[in-house]
Amino acid sequence: MTAAGQAIADLDTPALLLDLDVLDRNLALMRKECERSGKALRVHFKSLKTGGLAKYLAAKGVTAFLCAKTNEAEVLVDGGITDVFVANQIIGPAKLARLARLAKRARVRVCVDDAGNVRQMGEAARAEGVTLEVLVEVDVGMSRCGVEPGRPTLELARAVVAEPGLRFVGLQAYDGQLQMLPDLNEKGQRCRAGLDQLLSTRQLLEASGVPIEVVTGAGTGTWSFTAEHPVMTELQPGSFLLMDAAYHAVRPEFACSLSILATVVSRRPGWYVLDAGSKAISQDFGKPLIKGHPEEKVVKLAEEHTKVEDEGGGPKVGQRREVYPAHCCATMNLHRRVVAVRGGAVEAVWPIESSGRYD
Ligand SMILES: Cc1ncc(COP(=O)(O)O)c(C=O)c1O
C-alpha cells in the first residue's frame, strides 16, 4: 500500500513517479509566458490522463483543459472541470451522444472538419437540449485532420453557424509535424508560416461576417513561437508539465517531472538490468534515460527488463534508478496509477482513469 508521507526509498518498484516541485516550475514558466504574451492557457489532458492531476492543477487556477478522446473529457468533467475542449473529430452517434450529455455538466468544445459530422453533431446536441461549442480544425501543414485554410474553412464555419444546437466559436490548428524539430530557427520559420496562413483565414472569416472568439493551437515544441504570433488567443500544450527525454532534448526550458522508479535485478561486468521494461516505459519516441547518470546508457528494453550499459561502476543488485521515458503521454497510458511526490516523500497517489482507454 502506497500512502501519503511514505518515503520514495520505501516504495516497491516499478513505480511511476511525478515530481510535483518540478511540475510546478514547468507550469509557472508556461503561465508567466502566456500572461506576458496575452494568451490564454489550456492544458492538454491526453498527456496527463489522471483526474487527480487535473484537480491539482485546477486548485492552482488552471481551469481550461483539452483532450483527445471522449473518455478523457468524461474523466475531466467527473473531476469537476467545467471547461473542456475535445480537440479531435468525434464521429458516430454513440460518442456524439456522450459528448452532448457532458455538455449538461460543463462547457464542451469540439473540433470538426466534415459537414456531415456537423449535421450529426447538431442532431445529438438538440436531442439532449444542449449547445456544443464548435471549432473548425484547420490543417496548417500537419496533414492529419482538418480542412484547408481559406475558403474550405469559411464554408465549414458557415455550416456550423447554420446548425441549431451548435455555436461556432473559432478555429483550431495544431502543428504536430514541427514539435520535435531540433533546429529552433527552422521550427520558428515553419511555425510562423503556418500561423500566417491561419491569420489570413481568420481575416477571411471575419471579413465574411463570421466572428471568431477563439483561435487555439501549439504544443510543447512550438509554444514560444505561437505565443509571439498575433493569430492565436490560446495555447494548448500538455507535455510541458510532465516532459520526457525526447521533448527535453528539444525544449530544455522544461524539466522532466515524470520518471519510473526501478530496481536493479541483475548485474554483470559492463551492464545492469532494471525491473521495468517496455510494459512500463514507452519507447515509441526512443530510448529512455537514467536520471542523474548520463554515463549509463539504456541499450535494450524487453517486456519486464531494461538493460543499461555502464563502465561497471554503476549500481548493484537491489539498488535503484529513476528512468526518464522518451514519451511521457504513452508512458502514462501504460500505468494504472501515478505516485505524486515532493521532497523525497509521497504526497498523493492518483489513479490514471484514462489509461489504456481508446474511446
Ligand atoms: C490537437 C493537439 N493539440 C496540442 C497538442 C500538444 O501536445 P504536447 O504539448 O504534448 O506536444 C497535441 C499533441 O498531440 C495535439 O494533438
Tell how many strands the DSSP assignment holds. Answer: 18
Tally of alpha and pi helices: 12
Question: Which cofactors or ions or other ligands sit in this model?
Answer: pyridoxal-5'-phosphate
What is the CA-CA span between the terminal residues? 30 Å
Classify the helix fraction into a percent range: 25-40%
Order of helices and strands: EHEEHHEHEHEHEHEHEHEHHEEEEEEHEE
- Roughly how many Å is the radius of gyration? 22 Å
Which structural class is indicated by helix and strand composition? alpha/beta
Q: What's a quick, concise take on this entry?
A:
With 359 residues, this protein is of the alpha/beta class. The chain has helices spanning 20-37, 45-48, 51-59, 70-78, 93-102, 115-128, 151-161, 184-207, 223-228, 239-242, 245-250, 328-332, and strands at residues 15-19, 40-41, 43-44, 64-67, 83-89, 107-112, 132-137, 166-173, 214-217, 234-235, 258-268, 271-274, 289-290, 297-301, 306-309, 320-324, 337-342, 345-351.
What does this protein look like?
The protein has 359 residues and is of the alpha/beta class. Helices cover 33% and strands 25% of the residues. The chain is built from twelve helices and 18 strands. Strands 1, 11, 12, 13, 14, 15, 16, 17 and 18 form a nine-stranded mixed β-sheet that branches. A nine-stranded parallel β-sheet has the order 2-10-9-8-7-6-5-4-3. Strand 4, helix 4 and strand 5 form a beta-alpha-beta unit. Helix 4 packs parallel to helix 5 and helix 5 crosses helix 6. The chain is globular, with a radius of gyration of 22 Å. The model has no long low-confidence stretch (mean pLDDT 97). Bound molecules: pyridoxal-5'-phosphate. The site of pyridoxal-5'-phosphate has 14 residues, from helix 10.
